[in-house]
């Protein structure tokens, strides 16, 4: 394939590596024995570090020197639009860390896609493409989730694998152990390609499934909004409510859920949790919201959850398996099996070691069988 052999220091890569490590410009400068201004000049491509400083940077930040000279330039989210699923008062440095995690994943994923054909994303006809913010009726959102279920032949029952569903839609998913447990997920677009970054640190499978469904809601409902629209606190609160409703409606469609809700006692609801693979609290919320569980019973169930200290850790959280992404693991396995010389080209273009790429994709040798009818094909 065609290559760009330019050897120019990319300041944005230094910023990426620094923010992934949660370091400020001043801290990196202090470690290197240079001023804040010099590091700022490097990151803004006004100057380049000396070879000696590059050696130090490599050791401190953990990225090979060649990473800072790879051909990808001006990496940033489209329209600076980011959808965070996070708790209140999360420090900016942690938000920057997850954003850079998404950027790094997009850099590597984009290069891998130059060698392997992967499912492409396009907005379905039932997605909303409003540029200006306006409240979306919850009934309309529920209809959109049913359109999605119909398109992918999901029926009205549980979704067996939420991660696999969004990967089939052409959305790239990455699981990361983030430093802040207050950040659940992030959605960003890079070159019109959506990426979902999930924090899988100490988080149950049912919560991850809901987080992925929530982020999918942002992609299909809100991704045409401007940063100004989403930054408005009132708008953002409503946007989050809509994404939550989307997730609940997608994972627990009322038409199917009502057939299983033959009892509202706790033991039965716990069995429904295993069957639908959603949290007990989500089941109770949806049952209350749809009128299937009375307000009195809802209060009683929530009191039981509090007494049993289940708010943060519910029964069966450790038994329902996490649905890890597999798309890029299969892609890497395919390249290694079918054309191993391409793996060397990928390593060269990315600027990371092969092991670092494997670690990014949580790749395990020989874990994924490559079949002749697989949709993966070498470019």
UniProtKB/TrEMBL annotation:
* One Pfam family matching this protein: Peptidase_M78
Residue span, HTH cro/C1-type domain: 14-67
Instruction: Please give the Gene Ontology molecular function terms for this protein.
Output: DNA binding
The text of the family note is:
Belongs to the short-chain fatty acyl-CoA assimilation regulator (ScfR) family.
Protein's name in the database: ImmA/IrrE family metallo-endopeptidase
Species whose genome carries this gene: Enterococcus dongliensis
Question: Which lineage ranks, top first, belong to the organism behind this chain?
Answer: Bacteria, Bacillati, Bacillota, Bacilli, Lactobacillales
């Amino acid at each position: 394939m065609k290559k760009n052999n330019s050897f120019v220091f990319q300041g944005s890569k230094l910023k990426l590596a620094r923010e992934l490590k949660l370091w400020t410009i001043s801290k990196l400068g202090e470690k290197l024995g240079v001023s804040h201004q010099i590091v700022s000049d490097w990151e803004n491509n006004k100057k380049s570090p000396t070879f000696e400083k590059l050696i130090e940077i490599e050791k401190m930040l953990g990225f090979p020197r060649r990473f800072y000279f790879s051909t990808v330039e001006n990496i940033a989210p489209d329209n600076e639009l980011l959808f965070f699923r996070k708790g209140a008062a999360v420090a900016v440095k942690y938000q920057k860390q997850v954003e850079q995690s998404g950027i790094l994943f997009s850099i590597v994923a984009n290069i891998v896609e130059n060698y392997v054909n992967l499912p492409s994303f396009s907005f379905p006809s039932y997605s909303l493409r409003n540029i200006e913010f306006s409240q979306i009726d919850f009934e309309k959102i529920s209809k959109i989730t049913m359109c999605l279920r119909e398109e992918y032949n999901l029926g009205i029952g549980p979704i067996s694998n939420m991660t696999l569903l969004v990967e089939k839609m052409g959305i790239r998913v990455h699981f990361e152990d983030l430093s802040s447990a207050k950040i659940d997920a992030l959605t960003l677009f890079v070159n019109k390609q959506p990426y979902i970054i999930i924090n899988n640190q100490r988080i149950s499978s049912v919560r991850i499934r809901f987080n992925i469904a929530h982020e999918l809601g942002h992609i299909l409902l809100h991704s045409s909004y401007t940063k100004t629209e989403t930054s408005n606190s009132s708008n953002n609160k409503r946007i989050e409510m809509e994404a939550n409703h989307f997730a609940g409606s997608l994972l627990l469609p009322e038409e199917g859920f009502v057939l299983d809700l033959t009892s509202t006692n706790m033991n039965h609801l716990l069995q429904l949790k295993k069957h639908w693979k959603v949290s007990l609290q989500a089941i109770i919320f949806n049952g209350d919201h749809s009128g299937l569980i009375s307000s009195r019973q809802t209060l009683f169930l929530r009191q039981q959850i509090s007494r049993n200290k289940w708010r943060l850790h519910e029964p069966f959280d450790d038994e329902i398996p996490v649905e890890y992404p597999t798309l890029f693991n299969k892609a890497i396995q395919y390249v290694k099996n079918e054309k191993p010389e391409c793996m060397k080209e990928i390593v060269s273009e990315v600027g990371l070691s092969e092991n670092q790429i494997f670690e990014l994709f949580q790749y395990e040798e020989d874990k994924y069988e490559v079949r002749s009818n697989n949709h993966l094909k070498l470019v």
